[in-house]
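ugh ok so i messed up the first submission bc i forgot one of the chains. this is the corrected input, ALL of the components this time, i swear. 962 residues overall. if the numbers dont match what u have on ur side tell me asap before i send this to the collaborators (the ones from the other lab, u know who)
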Amino acid sequence: MSKSDLNRKAIESLQKIAQNWYDQMKGGVIPSINLPTRTKHNIEFDDESEVWKYGEKESTRSAASAKSAMHILKMAWVIWFLKKQIGENRSSTLRELYYISEGWKKAKFGAQDESNFLIEDLEILTDMQREAFHLRPEEDGATIFGPIELKEVTRRGERKIHCRDDVGEAGYQIPTNVDTIDFLDHDARFVVAIETGGMYARLIENGFDEDYKAILVHLKGQPARSTRRVLNRINDQFKLPVVVFTDGDPWSYRIYASVAYGAIKSAHMSEILATPQARFIGVQPSDIRDYNLPSDHLNERDIAALQSELSDPRFATDYWKEQINLQLKMGMKSEQQAFAARGLDFVTKEYLPKRLSDMGIL
Amino acid sequence: MVLADELAKAQRSISVAEFFEKNKHLLGFDSPTRGIITTVKEAVDNALDACEEAEVLPDIYVGIKRISGDVFRIIVEDNGPGIIPEQIPYVFGKLLYGSRFHQIKQSRGQQGIGISAAVLYAQLTTGTPTLVISRTSAATPACQVLLQIKIETNEPDIISSTEIEWDRTHGTRVQIEFKSSLAAKKRLLEYLRYTAVVNPHARIRVDLDDEPETFERVSAEIIVCPKAIQPHPHGIEIGQLQRMLASSDDPVEQFLILGFSRVGKKTAIEMCQISGISPEKPAKEITKDEQRQLITAMQQVNVPAPPASLCLSPIGEDLIIRGLQKEFPMDFIRARTRPSSVFSGHPFMVEAALGYGGKLPPEGNAQILRFANRVPLMYQQGACAITSCITEINWKSYSISQQGLPIGPLLILVHVASTNVPFTSESKDAIASIPEIEKEVTLALQELGRDLKQFLSRRDRNRLAEDRARAVCAIIPEIASKVSEIVELPVPDISPIEGRIMRKMVVKRDLTDGLVTIDLNNYTTFDGIVSVYETSLDDAAGAKPPADFVTSVGNEFTKVWQIPLTPGASWKVTWKGRGGGTLDIRGIEAGKLVVVDLNV
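and heres the new structure output, hopefully the right one now
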């Protein structure tokens, strides 16, 4: 879809929401809007796309209550602003939107969470992404390093970039709007998504990408939408396997889950954000035992998180049950970089190759 | 001569009139200010009692006029059965003369002191004799008596007695002059107002030193006069029993059955058995010892409570509410009549009412209205058992603040009806503390307190809902204007939406494709009939539903629909026409109506 088509479609979909309210008011009906309930109780697994999406539960926000009337008023202001912004071909960050609302009197947002949430509502209602409304998150995208070539449409024209040959030591920075890049070619056998910057740098320094033809993606903790979208697109376009390499604790398993299955907050776009084929490579609880990794004791919150993962449908496989139960029994957790205890090369020369061949990727 | 002999010379009997001359406070004449209220009260009580006995709707006139300086003339006139001429001197001119003292039933006056005490007071302060006019029927002439009391002997002193023409066919008028003041005018009016509240069948006209006021009746229902009953075995004392035995010609068994209420053959024989007296023994021949045994036996035997429904005349919840509503406009009012109960063999019944809000003073102590046998108790509030019951209730649990007495726009009415109201003194100002009565008063007030609490919380909820609705209505216009800006269309009329949110009745008229539509939506709690008047060039002959009636002036037709509506109901009419003209809705207050005419 061309950019102007996309703009027109965005304005039309936003305007449709307002038109609906207008018709309601004209007919003497209190304006209202239906939205899926956005809690974990309304998340269902979609067998076809193998991702988690919002279920059937809907809630109606009717202007008959002051709270919902306020929500509708704010939404009207946001639609009015976005329509203007798209028309003028400008863009703003989510944080800027929050500050812009300062001048909206009653409709001003109390906190940025509120405006972020409202934008997500609009994404659900229009079935479009916030990027189509010319809104971007303010956080930096993560980075890619490895044998992959892409084309980015920048303000200064198109750029062709090879993510190893044309970039510095830190790699190629993923833009907030991934729709401006096209992946051209690659010489890779798989993708490794890495939780921490330290391990990402270790793999680059040790030349893991060259030795094993790997594309390295830094997740920077809980991955941003653009990072997850990049993983989804590389996997989809080149059918490359994706493995996720994180710390060996319950919070890191959730990073894996959001890459593979999607997050509750963005369940309306799981299909384009999640990579159901992504597999977990480590650190596995059994690795802590087998390699005798330096480790910390699990604290109460860790234990509670592991317990809740045992009842989480996303972890309802024999593999995860075995690993989580093992970890609960050991009462230990380890970081990725604990492999350094066995030498700086251990992770690239021994651990990863062994795991990759166990998983049938190498 | 010994001292005792000298003292003996000074010893002599005291006439009851002399006694009261010295002890005026016992009868409520402790001050000139109070005297006027007591006099009016006694005269009005007598008038109401008399009308009740004659089963006529009381029409009472109270006139108070300053004659000169501090001398006032008090006139009370009623339409009761009248008093036969021979009795007039005794009723007004002898203390402790009355018809109700020996009867066991609910009545206002009892001892026959009140009005003659007023005569006595007049005589003492101005020396003016009292004028009484009474007529018993249209067939007999009225009798006018001028009288005083012989204080030494407590006998009437008739100054003159003549037959006169009188415009009433039956009734009594008493005219008393004494020294007093109108300082307690407010209290006097209060007394009359309270009297009107608990006697909703009475009309009281007042002429207070040329300021007229009328307390109209709210019920035209004649109250059934309570019947006198026999004493109850549990409420009798030895002296009374002795007198009753002495005047009886029956054997003991028969004496018990006939002389007491709720005593049948079985109970009588049981009493005889316990006291060891033969049932056949003549009542007159019972010895002193046997008397004592008999009275003990009478207390031991289980006897059902006296027949309260016969001898008591409660006002009733409905009439209390109507009586109160007339004199005190309030937001909440609820009354309770408790089932009858007994103390020391005397049946009694407690009625209470609670009122809240309206025109009651929002601050200060609650207003307390105390009544005994339909007579307002005006003095000694602090000494009364009713007041102590009120202070002992925890009003805070009914959302009413309290400092001893409850505080706020609250009115508390308590009526104690009994064949023998236990007053603390002869001036009948305060009810004595009797546990049985206190328990009933407390229960009645607690029941009402729960209702009040429910009312208050519902009122708060409604207020909250209204506040919320207002908040919404402040946002809706902004939504309308912003949304119109987005879709680039004129701002729609949002008054129907506001009407809906503010819970009003929304009427909308529209003309589309040659079809006139009137839509009516009742979002209020209104339950009744509204009339829709539509005046235009259309005759609306084919209207669905057809108009209830149509009138025409020139070429204009006025169509009227009368629509019964319940809360939440909606109604619609359509016809083929050109529309235009005017629309008018009647039958609902303007503040609750939103008319949206899209066809102008």
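quick check: Residues 185-358 of chain A form a domain with the Dna Topoisomerase Vi A Subunit; Chain: A, domain 2 fold (CATH 3.40.1360.10). that seems consistent at least. Chain A has two domains: 3-136, 185-358.
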